[in-house]
Design brief:
193 residues; mainly alpha; Rna Polymerase Sigma Factor, Chain: A; Arc Repressor Mutant, subunit A; 2 domains; 8 helices; 0% strand
């Protein structure tokens, strides 16, 4: 081997050695968490916001979920049904945050005023009023459902299967099916009135 070819071989191996000593490659857990974050970030935000939490609170909770997931995986715990695990942790954190927010509101005696929805310019004023009344009526009917039924509907809307919903909420598969059927029937009846 000539001096020039040995210098070339040494130069080609330097970036590999430098890369391995200065910059660490992501671990399997890091890659898995990043992949799941990219896949579920928006869905988890929507789910958490369904608890009446702000976008800011939802973002914080989602970050906490994935930090918890990273710790969970680094401790060598189960990788089985991580999708369900993520939604269960989000569910628990959202309930805690909502409870904390309610306590803070009660403590400070503050009222939150919701901004009115801006209607699309396309429908007529009568259609806008009817649409808003229907939305308000259905939202009222949804809020009258038991919390478990609301959670089942939100999780189903996010695409979780009955088994995953049961695991997230810690209830039986039959309870999920009954809850969803009962909730959809109540909402359909409310929509016909």
């Amino acid at each position: 081997m000539s001096a020039r070819s040995s210098d070339l071989a040494a130069a080609q191996s330097l970036p590999v050695m430098a890369g391995s000593s200065l910059v660490s490659r992501p671990s399997t857990s890091e890659i898995e968490v990043i992949t799941l974050f990219n896949e579920f970030h928006n869905r988890l935000c929507r789910y958490v916001m369904g608890f009446g939490l702000s976008c800011h609170d939802a973002e914080e909770i989602v970050q906490e979920v994935f930090l918890s997931l990273f710790r969970h995986l680094n401790l060598g715990r189960s990788r089985q049904n991580l999708r369900g695990w993520i939604f269960r942790v989000a569910n628990n954190l959202a309930l805690k945050r909502r409870h904390a927010n309610k306590r803070a509101l009660d403590r400070n005696l503050q009222l939150e005023i919701n901004a009115p929805l801006k209607a699309s310019p396309e429908p007529s004023p009568e259609e806008q009023v009817l649409s808003e009344q229907r939305r308000t009526h259905l939202l009222g009917a949804f809020k009258c459902l038991p919390e478990q039924d609301q959670c089942c509907l939100r999780l189903r809307a996010e695409g979780l299967r009955y088994r995953e919903i049961a695991k997230v909420l810690g209830i039986s598969l039959g309870s999920v099916a009954t809850s969803l059927a009962r909730s959809l029937t109540r909402l359909a009846c409310a929509d016909q009135r």
